[in-house]
Write the structure tokens for this entry.
Amino acid sequence: MNDRTKDTFGQLLLRAFKWFDQGLLDRLHAKGFPELRRSHSLVFAHLDAGGTRISELARRIGVSRQAVHETVGELRRARLVELVADPTNRSARLVVMTEEGRRSVRAARRIYAGLERELASRLGPERAAEFRRVLESDWGAPP
């Protein structure tokens, strides 16, 4: 029995996420975007189109506000996001994508489509389509 048979379903899903995320980050860098890390892609994955407060990003990602603040600072220095006044609360700020950030998201969507095609070529189109159907299924609330 090899160690892979002992992986939990959660570990397998996490490994699949890391495969896609690393493929994304490598290809974005190859296309001339700044070298990004997983923490950066997690911020983008949880960022609303109209912007999101740092405290809300931290809650969604499951990390401290300080960790998100540091990551947002890195993304600001890369000119991918900016902080703007929250129109609903003058003391709060929203993290919003810059035009360069939106360009990176458009590139990321094309890259994800390519990664999905690559996975289909490795698994076979039927298995990849079934994998997608399972992931798109309504799993209900966690127990």
Remarks:
- The chain is about 60% helix and 10% strand.
- Residues 47 and 83 are 12 Å apart (CA to CA).
